[in-house]
Amino acid sequence: MAPYESAKDTSEAADLRAGRRKAARYAVPIAVAGVAAATIGLVPALATSGDPDLPKVTAQELIEKIAASDTQQLSGNVKISTDLGLPSFGGMAGGFGGGGGADRGDDDGDEKGSAADPKSKLMELASGTHTLRVAADGPDKQKVSVLGDASEYSLIHNGDDVWAYDSASNEAYHAKDEGASPEKGENHGAVPKGELPSTPKEFAEQALKAVDGTTSVKVDGTAQVAGRDAYRLVIKPKQAGSTVGQITVAVDEKTGTPLKFTLTPASGGAAVVDAGFTKVDFGKPSASTFDFTPPKGTKVTEADEQSRDFKGKDGKKFDEGDLNEPKVIGKGWSSIAELKLPGGQGLPTAGSGDVPQDAQKLLDSLGDQVDGKFGSGTVFSTRLINALVTDDGTVYVGAVTKDALVKAANEAH
C-alpha cells in the first residue's frame, strides 16, 4: 500500500498552523479529569482493520477536514492504553496527596478527600488499559464513564453542574461549573486545564498544536476504525533529541472526527498512548444520559467544602502558586521547561518525613543520578516525558532525552 500524496508538508507550515488553530476551535468538549501532563501498548482490541479505497487527500486537506468537523454530538466506547514504563498508579493515588483519603481542608487536617474526586480518581488512566463509555451533546452536556470489572466511575457535565460518582465506594463529588459563559458556546471549565485528554479528538488537538516547521506531516494510507473508513495522518518530529517517534491519527472520512490516536516513542516498542473508538455513533444521545441523582445513602462532597490546598507533614499548606512560571528553553519538539521548586532546594525524601513511602518507592525506581556544570541531580525517566531535578531545586522537563536535559542544565549555568 503506497502512501498518499504528502504535498504541502512542512513547506507550508503557516497553512498547517492555521488549520490546527481551526481544529482547536472545533474540539468536541468531552469532559474528563485525569493526570498532570507530565504523567501521560497497543492492544488487539484497538487494532485497525482493512485498507478502504478512499479518494486521495493531502495533509493540508485532511487537517482542514478535522478543522471543519464541528462534531458536537456522539456516543460510544473508547479504549485507552498508556505505557509510560511506570508502575500502576491504582493504589498510589492517596500517597500523592489526592483524594481517596488524603488530608485536605481545614487547619486540623482531619477532613478527608472524596474518593470520587476526579483529580485523584482518574490518575489511574496514566497506566494500563481502560475502557471508557463517552457521550456528548454540545458544550453543555458530556459524560465519561470508566468501566471496571465490577464497578463504574462516571464524570457528568450537565449545564452548570459537574458530578462525579464512584460506585465502588458509593461516593459522589459535586461542583458548579463556573467557566466560560454559555453565550459564547465555550467549554465551561468542567475539566481543569492541563489534564489528560480522554478521546482521540482531544489527543489529536494537542498533537496538532505542535505542527510547525519542526514537523513532518503526511497522509499515509487508510484504515478502518470502529467500522468506519478513515485516513491515517502521520505527524513526526524533524528535530533530534525528542522522545516522540511519531503520532498517527485515524480521521473519519465522513465527519473529519479523529477516531484513533497512537503515539509511539522514538525508542520503539509498544505505543506510549493508544486511544481509539471501538464503537461510535454520531447521533444525538438521549437527554437522560446526562441526568444524575446521587443514589440513596451516597456520601456527597461539595467542591467548595473541600480545600484545594494540600498540607505536608509539617502542617504547612502547599500552594500551586509556589511553583513559578516555567522558562522555555528551545522550541518545537525539543523544547524544555525550566522552573524552580519552592524553597530553592531539591526533592525531599522519605527519611525527612516529607514524602509518603509509596511515592518514594516510585521516585527511587525512576531516578538516575547525574552530574554536570549545574552540580548534581536526578533524572526521572519515562518512555515519553523525562525530568531532571537538580539539588538546588531547578527542574528541567520535556519530551526529550536524558542527554538533552543535561545539556540544557549545563548551558543554563
Briefly characterize the structure:
With about 425 residues, the protein is an alpha+beta fold. It contains six helices and 20 strands.
Strand order of the largest sheet: 7-8-9-10-11-1-2-3-4-5-6-12
Radius of gyration: 22 Å
Order of helices and strands: HHEHEEEEEHEEEEEEEEEEHEEEEH
Largest sheet: 12 strands, mixed
**Termini separation:** 51 Å
Mean pLDDT over all positions: 75
CATH architecture of the largest domain: Clam
Number of helices: 6
CATH class of the largest domain: Mainly Beta
Count of β-strands: 20
Q: Kindly report the CATH topology of the largest domain.
A: outer membrane lipoprotein receptor (LolB), chain A
Query: Helix/strand/pairing class, anyone?
Result: alpha+beta
Account of the protein in words:
It is a single chain. This protein is α+β, with helices and mostly antiparallel strands. The protein folds into two domains: 10-290, Lipoprotein localisation LolA/LolB/LppX (outer membrane lipoprotein receptor (LolB), chain A), CATH 2.50.20; 319-411, TATA-Binding Protein (2-Layer Sandwich). The chain is built from six helices and 20 strands. The protein has helices at residues 13-25, 59-67, 118-121, 200-208, 357-366, 402-411, and strands spanning 73-82, 128-137, 141-147, 152-158, 161-166, 171-176, 215-225, 228-237, 244-252, 258-265, 273-281, 299-302, 310-311, 317-318, 327-329, 336-340, 367-372, 375-381, 386-390, 394-398. The strands form three sheets. A twelve-stranded mixed beta sheet has the order 7-8-9-10-11-1-2-3-4-5-6-12, covered by helices on one side. Helix 1 packs parallel to helix 2 (59-67).
